[in-house]
Amino acid sequence: MFAKHETRPTPQVVYNWRIYWAACLASWVAVIIGYDAGFVGGMIALKSFKKEFGFDKMTPSEQSWVSETVVSLFQAGAFFGAFLIYPLGSKYGRKISLAVASVLLIVGSAIQLASNSKTGLAAMYAGRVLTGLGIGAVSNLAPMYSAEVSPDAIRGRLVGLFEISWQIGGTIGFWINYGTSVNIPDDEAKQWQIPVALQLIPAGIFGLGLYTLVESPRWLFTVGKREEALKNLCYLRQLDPEDEYIKYEVAIMEEEVDQKRAKMGLGVWDPFIKLFRSSSLRYRLLLSSSTFIIQNTLAVNAVNYYSPRIFQTMGISSLDSSLLSTGIFGILKGVFC
């Protein structure tokens, strides 16, 4: 399970703590994605949230519309964030782009926490959009960064940390609402504010942790910053520039850049042009992306975001019991991941 399938003799020092730290920190942001999926449906179902934002003055259809909007604005933000971060990451680098995403996450979470009956739902909506933009950005960049800094023998393992972090965050999110529901009275605003506030913890850790990361050597080679790329690669591998393994890896990266320049180009939009002209690339893209599309059209996100309501329609009448069922659902997801 943990075997390393190496293509050439590799010094064991390259599998060091710096590589695992970089991958773990980049993957850590997925905790926020999973946490949002786990907590937001339960937060909307909490009586304190409904009281704060005047659900008792709304018709059932208006209540449903508000609930769906709170959830969907996050998804819409993530959709556009994943697209908009691409040119930024290509031109200015992975680290700077991840820093921009962390700011969006922190600001968006803070605005959600500051929302109340005085600001109305507009602030909550704005915070959800900003958080979604940040999540979409890191969903694009974080696995890419992990793949680019990793030795090839453990690349799949390190990229897989992203999904594991996602499920850990989801499990916490599912249970936090149950904890606040049974321990904090319904008439206290902090019952729903605590789950919202906890978003700031992983986002803050991620933002501070970025100072310990170096820019992706592979990206630096792509934009012609060879000296900085070599320095960062040696730092990550804990080897000297004259080591044979470093020379080999540098040669491979530079050869890949030369091939990319010759066959496709290094411009921001060149990959899209190449994709448009190549049926084989479009087919491979369809195979890889369609699995994710199919997964998300099997109603799993509906269960993630609306599980308290779904369990109540199945006959689990009390809110605490439905939140407990939601928590068990989150544990099952995490274990099977």
Describe the structure.
This protein has 337 residues and is mainly alpha-helical. Helix content is 77%, strand content 0%. The chain has helices at 17-28, 30-45, 47-52, 60-92, 94-114, 121-149, 155-183, 190-197, 200-209, 217-222, 226-237, 244-263, 270-277, 279-296, 300-313, 319-336. The protein starts with 16 loop residues before the first helix and ends with a helix.
List keywords for this structure.
elongated; 16 helices; 77% helix; mainly alpha; 337 residues
Counting DSSP E segments of at least 2 residues, the number of strands comes to 0
Q: Segments where pLDDT lies below 50 for 5+ residues?
A: none
Supply the helix-strand structural class.
mainly alpha
Average residue pLDDT: 86
Main beta-sheet strand count, sense and barrel state = none
Indicate the overall shape: elongated
The helix/strand order is HHHHHHHHHHHHHHHH
> In DSSP terms, counting alpha (H) and pi (I) runs of 4 or more, how many helices?
16
Q: State which percent range the strand residues make up.
A: under 5%
Q: From the alpha carbons, calculate the radius of gyration and give it in angstroms.
A: 22 Å
Cα separation of the termini: 15 Å
* Helix percent band: over 70%
